[in-house]
Amino acid sequence: MTSPFQLYINGQFEDGAAQFDSINPATGQVWAKMPEARTNEVNRAVAAASKALQNEAWAGLTASQRGKLLYKLADLIEKAAPQLAQYETNDTGKIIRETSSQIAYVAEYYRYYAGIADKLEGSYLPIDKPDMQAWTIREPVGVIAAIVPWNSQLFLSAVKVGPALAAGCSIVLKASEEGPAPLLAFARLVHEAGFPAGVVNVITGFGPECGAVLSSHPDVAHVAFTGGPETAKHIVRNSAENLAKVSLELGGKSPFIVFADADLQSAVNAQVAAIFAATGQSCVAGSRLLVESTIKDEFVQRLVERVQTIKIGLPDDHATEFGPLCTLRQRQKIEQVVASSLQQGAQLLIGGKSLEREGYYYPPTILDCSDVPQADCVMTELFGPVLSVVRFTTEFDAIQKANNTPYGLAAGVFTNNFSRAQRMTKAVRSGIVWLNTYRAVSPLAPFGGHGLSGHGREGGADAVLDYTTTKTVWLRTSDEPIADPFVMR
Ligand code: NAI
Ligand code: MG
Known about the structure:
Blueprint: E1 7-9, E2 12-14, E3 18-24, E4 29-36, H1 39-54, H2 56-59, H3 63-92, H4 96-116, E5 123-125, E6 132-140, E7 143-147, H5 153-166, E8 170-175, H6 181-193, E9 200-204, H7 207-215, E10 220-226, H8 229-242, E11 245-249, E12 255-258, H9 264-276, E13 288-292, H10 296-308, H11 328-344, E14 347-350, E15 365-368, H12 376-379, E16 386-392, H13 395-402, E17 410-414, H14 418-427, E18 432-435, E19 454-455, E20 468-476
Parallel strand pairs: 7-8, 7-10, 8-9, 10-11, 12-13, 12-17, 13-16, 15-16, 17-18
Antiparallel strand pairs: 1-2, 3-4, 5-6, 6-20, 11-19, 14-15
Helix pairs in contact: 1-7, 3-4, 3-6, 4-5, 7-8, 9-10
Bound molecules: 1,4-dihydronicotinamide adenine dinucleotide and magnesium ion.
């Protein structure tokens, strides 16, 4: 089978060491062949990126010129969004409704970082020595290895590629083997935008070879990783080889907290968005509903009624609201954890059984865990459409329960009490708090977590600084010869 998908190394498209099958999760069938990068391809991609960093075609550009290339890339992404969305939907099962709007918005991330490229300033230091001047300049940190998971790959790579290129770095971007189509197609846009050869390389392959060789490569300066916590441990171990700087955006078990004084209809819809949008396969999924005991029954009933109306269907149908999971393995994991949670005493309110149709469908599922708040489904990230409900009595109880997790990515708080919203914002341990809303993102807003959710922040202006390093320059202004070589200046 000839494939339109190729690796992009040193400005050239190539087939890779081998081909592997890519599955359409809506059918469970192979829909395309993907090129596999192995050690040789990874080494060549890193070599190309290292060379590009020294090459005047890139290193010699002004910051504004780098910004202009990023603006051009943004325009191309916007134009290609429908095609990229179709690829992502075919390859990952994510519904076309979401992929088409999300990818069009990805262009805004590139525009945001395009605008920041020429606003990275050094500083003049008012140094305490009369015969010296000193200043700092910001330089690109070096070759970036960006490794992303299968979901929202264009979005998750934009928050790495955008700031890295704005800062003047070069990059090797590894698409996930579970759905590399949209990123391999993105490489064509990079090429069309006119970035010099080797500045951006896009590869895909499997974790144990492609990912491991890339993240431990001696010429990589920074590994920007998004994925699961277990893979993150490999990344950190791999970085013992190159001592690269590592940033980690990992999973979550984010609480969605509803107080009795909240607008319940709004909270119901936000809870549906939090856990059932993207079939629950979202790092910020609000997978633990903490609800005040006085309204628990009413809230859960309204939620179940709303969930019954969700349109399950083929992901490439614009009417579909809920599609398949990305992989069979993922569905098996969810089945296991739901089974063990039911044994532990969780009560099934809706869903709970894989759908009998082709493809990897698992329905919207709600488990009441109020009497078993330590059940597996409450404690484990499922990366799927499973909501665990736990009731709370007081604000203190809500905080204790919200923070009873090794993760700390996001939290939602629904209340009409402004003071309480302020107190909760402070008390909840997470990198993002959404008050009376959920799942809102913007290029302007930093994104990231604590604990098993990782560290580092992506998005926002400061993210560019992560891709730079400072150089301190000293200038002696005196014409007198240096007198005493044994005294530190
Ligand atoms: P994963 O951790 O299995 O894979 C992520 C990437 O790491 C893939 O490209 C994979 O090939 C690579 N990889 C695997 N083993 C490796 C190794 N030994 N060395 C180097 N690279 C290796 O993640 P998956 O299953 O694709 O995605 C789901 C996870 O990603 C969930 O935990 C989810 O919460 C998290 N995620 C976090 C986000 C955030 O921004 N905080 C956003 C989206 C997903
Ligand atoms: Mg696939």
